[in-house]
Each structure stands twice: as C-alpha cells, then as structure tokens.
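Hey, quick one: can you model this chain's 3D structure?
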Amino acid sequence: MPASLTVYRGAQALLGVGVTLFIGLMLKMVLPYLSFEPGIHFLTTKSQAINANAVFRAGFYVHIVSSWWVLVAGLLQFFPGLWRNRRRVHQQLGKLYVASILALAAPSGLVLAYFANGGLAAKVGFTLQCVVWWLCTWQAYRLARQRQWEEHIKWMLRSFLVTLAALSLRLESYVLYHFFGTKPIETYLTVVWLSWTGNLLLAEVLVQAGAARRLLRDFYQTHPAASQPKPQAVAV
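Sure thing. Here's the predicted structure for all 236 residues.
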C-alpha cells in the first residue's frame, strides 16, 4: 500500500473514531434537555426572559436534536465501504443530511445566534457560521443534482467540517483555557470564530490534498454500478 494511501486511511480512521466518540458525548448531553426543563445546563446561562421566549425554546430544541443526527448521517457518508452494494441507503443518508441542515439545523442555529451570549462579536460569528454551513450544503446538493461528483464531494467536505465546528469549539476551548490560560470571555469569543473558520481552512487543505478524488474512487469501488452512464444522484 502506498504511503499516501496509508496516511489517508489512518486519517480517515482517526476522524471516524474521534467523531463517533463525540457523537456519543453529544447524545449524553442532549438527552437531559428532552425533559424540557428550563433550568438545566446551558439554559442556565440564559435569562428568565430568554428561557421563556417561545422562539428561542423552539430554535434550541430543534437545533440540538437535528444537529445530532446530522453528525451521524454526515459521518457515515464518508465511509462508503459501510454501504457496499447498498447504494440506496447511502443515498437516503445523504438526503437526510442535506435536508436536515437546510431546513432545520442551520435555520435554528440562526435563532440561537440571535440570542447568543457575548455581544455583537459572538452573534455575528455564529450567524456567519450558520450562513456558511447552509451555503456549503446547498452547493453540495446543487452539484449532486448536476452529477458533478468530485465537486459535490469537495463541498460536502466543507459542509461536514463546518458541522464539526461543535467538536472544534469544545476542543479549542479546553486547549485555550487550560494550556494558554485565556480568560473565559476571551476563550469564548475566540472559539466562536476559530471553530468554524479553522475547520474551513482544514477542509481546503483536504481538498487540495486530493481527499475528494480518493473518496470518489472509494465510492465507485464499493458501488460498481455508479460508474455506469447517467448514475442516479447521490450524496457522498
């Protein structure tokens, strides 16, 4: 096996393990909120007036639940071997990922951005993150409809790396606070922006390194019929 392929497989496996662990952690964090109690965990950082706001509450619950299954569906799309000769399942997962971001996770994220702590800098940071997330996902969907598969995968990579901003935000917060001694508000305002802009930069590095071409080859190897003329639209 070529060294470059070994590195690719290793990075893919590391990403899979890391995101899977994070998905489990997020599920553990989300479940207590399904009691709909206003005075628990993150909701305690909001004023009584905000917690009583129906728009905020709806946006919050839609966002935490839809974002969780977006993480699951998105991760599985980047391991075509799991769906060998099950192209229909692969396709439906892609549709679930795209529809959930466009209709639920990103719009509800805009609601939370409006009510974000940290003043204008935080509100703008979270708002731009949601807009970029929506646009990357829409572009990936549009390219899939046009059957431009390699370009489609590039935009799916960008979309999923923005999806992983929730993971980056927590990791970066830990590093900044515990290793660099930043103050809580400095840490918060830094990761509001760094978590998604840094991930977008990483996505570009992966694209330039040929990750999209590698994923496309993997897809064709596990779904031989997809190499035939005029394949059905799928999200890889």
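One thing worth noting: Confidence is low (pLDDT under 50) at residues 228-236.
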